[in-house]
Amino acid sequence: MAKKYDAIIIGAGHNGLINAAYLARAGKKVLVLERRHLVGGATVTEEIFPGFKFSVFSYVVSLLRPQIIQELQLPRFGLTILPLESTLTPLPNGDYLYRDSDHYRSLRDIARHSARDAEAYEEYNREMYFMAKAAQPIIDNPAPDPASLKPGELFRLARLGKNMLNMGPERLYTLAKLLTMSAADFVEQWFEAEPLIATLSASGIIGTNMGPRSPGTAYVLLHHYMGDIDGAFRAWGFPKGGTGAVAEAIARSARAFGAEIRCEAAVERVIIRNGRARGVVLNSGEEITCNVVVSSLDPKQTFLKLVDPALMPEELVQDIRRFNIRGSSAKVNLALDALPEFSCMPGKGNHLRGAISISPSLDYMERAYDDAKYGNIPRRPYIDIIIPSMIDPDMAPPGKHVMSCFVQWAPYELNQGTWDERREELGDNVIDTLEEYIPNIKSIILGRQVLSPWDIEQMTGLSEGNIFQGELTLSQLLFLRPAPGYARYRTPIHNYYQCGSGTHPGGGIMGASGRFAAMAILRSR
Questions:
Q1: Residue numbers of the domain that contains 296
Q2: Is the pLDDT of residue 233 over 60?
Q3: Mean pLDDT score of the chain, rounded to an integer?
Q4: What distances in angstroms separate CA 7 from CA 33, 93, 281, 454, one per listed residue?
């Protein structure tokens, strides 16, 4: 007799795994189905070249909610996060901007570019700290529904409103600016030095198909400020073993609570009978029955692919079709024979253990965005770099290194040709850009992996390779994510739920969507 489950989760990305862990923790019989040969979705570590381990897609962690780490006992299951304590912005003229955990050293380096900026830097960080603390209840609670008259929803709205009013008028105005302005316009209110403005603004364009001067990117900047590691706000880290170690720790936790995980088990469709989800059909034709089906895939796949759109309200179908999922991010992963030698800061040092941002000016970034906006591969892209082997030596053989290059912007749809034909052109542009700051880069490359948005889609299943499963714009946040009336993890089909980053509170290795969806399921059961 076929085994029947209380819940089947489609996709073993970190949100799907977290959802499974919480349901299993509550005593439910849970099965996770993953199309790939390993868990993690875009949160994976793979040995692309012998001995070299890469965080293939996502590469740093900050937003993972502390309550998830505690409740799922992730450190017990192997999660260790190592700090990224510095940011280096090399400049074309051989100069640099360098900030690290030594606050006064950072101020001195900023002062080399602008004494006024050094004075404003502490005030800016203090203001962003308060903004992140004020906005934290938004990401640590399900989105309230302003159209509902239910007492619980009215209470959530009142509590959210009270939090806003308690900020005081000045900070409330600042929050309104962060929700509506461009990252560049917001940062320019504080600073005048181009490298500082560009590097700070870069946090507002990560994973988006918008430029630094596009309205709404200031919220993405705030979104990235809301992370914390061990209580330190705006802290970023690298998981020991790569980001795949995060997914593996969650998977071990889920299994310890009794969840079952099957890889190489792609789901073809959800079984719907009498308006209720009853199970799934795999690509192999196998049928598995259950009481609840949960999709951790993006909204377009959840609503338009796994089920027949005709089973849902036409208005919802149109909303999901209009939901902006525009791939714009690429990755170039490099296996290196030696350490990269930056012309601005030669030699080995702490600057190689943090983030390295190729963002010398706003004009530089806007030009890269302009290329992509018209379907072209950027000639000089924005690149966010880390060298994982400098943080965790186990990522590469002794004396060798791996370099992770997150690239923005790479259009999903090219103006000419296909990504299969032009993929290596992107890799060449990235390497040529790096050579302007790292003269020895070409001579030390042992291997490279170039992943366009199209490649990310093919490998992970993320529509258009969008790492957030949808733009983090004001029109796609809170009760509008992914569509009005469906932000609380349900769908119009009974016992069919959503738990991916396309739901509130959004993307990044955060896990809140998986946790909130599990709570909604358990309440309904």
A1: 5-42+66-75+241-324+463-524
A2: no
A3: 92
A4: 11, 58, 14, 31
